[in-house]
Amino acid sequence: MQVITWNCCRAFKKKHVHLLSLNPDLLVILECENPYKINTKFYHQSVWVGDNENKGLGVFSFNNINIQIHESYCDKYKYAVPVVVTNSENKRSVNLIAIWSQNNKEERNRRYIGEVYSSLDYYENLLKSPVIIAGDFNWNIKMDYDADAPLRGTFADVRDLLEQYNIHSMYHSYNNLDFGAEKEDPTFFLTFNEQKPYHTDYMFASADIIDKMKSFSVGKYADWRLLKSDHMPLIVEFADIM
């Protein structure tokens, strides 16, 4: 099973073909338009949330994998979307929490990573069973020290919350790295500048799912910059997890 997350920086209808060549089973796409605006149905099923029909959070499934928004979804955490992912053949399921963190201007302590922490704390019951968490956090642990106002939770708090449930970053587990030690594989280039790399996109999973991870990779700037996104895709392949 192959899972990919990517902040496509809009116009996914013009860019999706580049991901299809990677043979995904599940896509978590940030800043994508509502699927009804995409003329070609290249996927099996989709779920989407957003305030702007041209810029929301979408999840797309393939290969007879069924998806639906979990009954616990709370609009207060609009861009942290719990999704039930089900193999239509054997009916086995796993939960996914798709995340696109926002700059909350009304509640400053919930901006970016503060929103990630708040939403994961709200969905804590989902962390008790096998789960994948994927998306654009717009933050990393080094940014905790530069925050210009208090946060509802820092990146370190998110890490600690997830570790309570034996949930870990797939990239860091695969590469045996600590948070903050990402000298290669940036996922984001500020203002599209190759000289301003950051690691701000993540895929976490329960330990029993990580045990089935076969490979993990991050797209390279030279390959993806022409698609006019400042983010790189994260690509993970698993042995059978459902």
Secondary structure: elements and pairs:
Elements: E1 2-7, H1 17-20, E2 26-32, E3 45-52, E4 55-61, E5 65-69, E6 80-87, E7 93-100, H2 113-122, E8 131-136, H3 155-163, E9 167-169, H4 170-175, E10 188-189, E11 197-198, E12 201-206, H5 207-210, E13 213-218, H6 221-224, E14 234-238
Parallel strand pairs: 1-2, 7-8
Antiparallel strand pairs: 1-14, 2-4, 3-4, 5-6, 6-7, 8-12, 9-12, 10-11, 13-14
Helix pairs in contact: 2-3
Shape: globular
- Mean pLDDT metric: 95
Q: Any low-confidence stretches, pLDDT <50, length ≥5?
A: none
Largest pleated sheet = 6 strands, mixed
The CATH class is Alpha Beta
- The CATH superfamily bears the name Endonuclease/exonuclease/phosphatase
Percent of sequence in beta strands: 25-35%
Element-level helix/strand string: EHEEEEEEHEHEHEEEHEHE
Tell me the distance between the termini: 9 Å
Spatial strand order of the main sheet: 3-4-2-1-14-13
Number of helices: 6
Domains (count): 1
**What share of residues is helical?**
10-25%
CATH topology: Deoxyribonuclease I, Chain A
Tally of strands: 14
What is the name of the CATH architecture?
4-Layer Sandwich
The structural class is alpha+beta
Rg, nearest Å: 17 Å
Question: Can you tell me about this structure?
Answer:
This protein has helices at 17-20, 113-122, 155-163, 170-175, 207-210, 221-224; strands at residues 2-7, 26-32, 45-52, 55-61, 65-69, 80-87, 93-100, 131-136, 167-169, 188-189, 197-198, 201-206, 213-218, 234-238. The chain is of the alpha+beta class. It has a single domain (2-238), classed as Endonuclease/exonuclease/phosphatase (Deoxyribonuclease I, Chain A, 4-Layer Sandwich). The strands form three sheets. The chain has a six-stranded mixed β-sheet. A six-stranded mixed β-sheet has the order 5-6-7-8-12-9. A two-stranded antiparallel ribbon has the order 10-11. The longest helix is centred in the middle third of the chain and has 10 residues, at 113-122. It is globular, with a radius of gyration of 17 Å. It starts with a strand and ends with a strand.
